[in-house]
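Bench log, entry 3. Co-assembly request; chain sequences pasted below exactly as received.
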Amino acid sequence: MPREAEPSINDRAFLLQALQENIRLDGRALDAYRHLDISFGDDYGVADVRLGKTRVLTRISASITAPRPDRKFDGIFTITTELSPLASPAFESGRQSDLETHLSRILETSLRRSQALSTESLCLVAGQKVWALRADIHVLDYDGGLIDACCLSTLTALRHYRIPDASVKGGDLTVYTPVERDPVPLALLHHPVCVTLNFFESGEKWLVDATLMEQQCSEGEIVVAANPQGEVCLVQKGGGGEVDALVLLRCVEVAMGKVRELGKAMDGALAKDAKRRDKGGMSRELRAENER
Amino acid sequence: MAAQTLVLPGEAIPSDILPIPSNPSLALKLGPGLRHVPPSTITSVLAGSLCIDQKKNSIWVENNSGRYIPQPNDLVLAIVHHSSTDWYHCAITPHTTLAQLPQLAFEGATKKTRPQLNSGSLIYARVLSASKHTDPELACCNPSTGKSEGMGELKGGMVFDVSLGMARRLLLARQREEGGLVVLEEIAEKVAFEVAVGRNGKVWVKSGGVKETLLVGRALQETDREGLGVEEQGRLVKKLLRGI
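Structure output for the full assembly:
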């Protein structure tokens, strides 16, 4: 009978004692993220984000379908999460847990409803054919910070993805293979990132990027989604415990700093990957033996 | 530890390195990671280092992975999940079923003076019986003498997770010679602390303050993660001690 590894009374007391002395168990500062590592697969649109021990892999795929009758000009973008028992003994396959619902709601609001991806750009033939974009999130290892890692992973994968180029001539739709025409990046309007803060000591103390154990011992959490330009897309508070309004404002401010930090890490990883893929650069394109 | 032999899955163990029994009729004992293919071939099914005990006439493969499976006589750190009339139900690992600890299996416990453990209490116990088909059974005292021998409820301190191989090394009688571990000895020269090592990959550490406890835990975890040698462990401990 698998279940979540609950911390013992001793662990809980020790963690809170350490926090009173401003010490975190892994030696980080209270407002520091764990080591973040973003890598990409061989295909476009596969992003693997590691945040400490938490690991999330997202894959973007696209297919052509008919649009919804009430939204003829909009493409379809769906996010599905998969919490498999591989990541934690508490996750069961085939049944949606509260965590999964919570996670998909937050991703929905922060990425889909904030119009990060312009669904209109996914329209091919109005009312007949649109791109159905699908983000599959697989949680491979779980040690807290799931929302942050999933959001970052999905956004990175979206930014990394290249959708096949298509053209419409006289009502005929042509979708080009990557050999015929280079696939094109998605039209992302802004880049929202989630930052989770956990509260302790009746809202007096807060932590950024809590590990699973810190999360289990905390009194409440607040998720802030914002883009590096400073626009807040979502603030969600959960877990009970009350928080002072001023503390909340301070938290949003801190989250904003973290969003910029994460955004920079994402930009760096994407630029590095682009460089890796662009072997030879322009000179290779122009060489005589190049088929095109 | 003699010269290490590393084996890979499927590799046949040459017969000349098998232990020589003192009495020819004594059967060779195969431990985890080895398989006997009749008539006389022994192959490994795990990757790891081959360990041979000449005295016990046994041979096994030591590796550092896998989930803990309870075995009789193992010392484990468990967390009380809930209690029923006569039992405490304890979690040894999150993956396996709850283990049962009789409420009277403590030193000097009678029906009137049994210890009161709440849900979430940490206990150090010995596995009495374990099999595939029944829940494991724990005891916090030696059943033959009734003495606690250091087992029972642990108060204060903090539990750190280590790999199963590291936990086995920590439980060796001679850590330095057999397991190549000096990290605890080195810290003990400067800082006083208590430890209890559970075979289920958990180490309980208690010391004077938060910093000291964390130092011991981090030293153990880093030694485990990086696979540090004896000299490197010394250097690590010196580095960590400077921070206090």
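The two ends of chain A are 59 Å apart (CA to CA). The longest strand of chain A covers residues 129-141.
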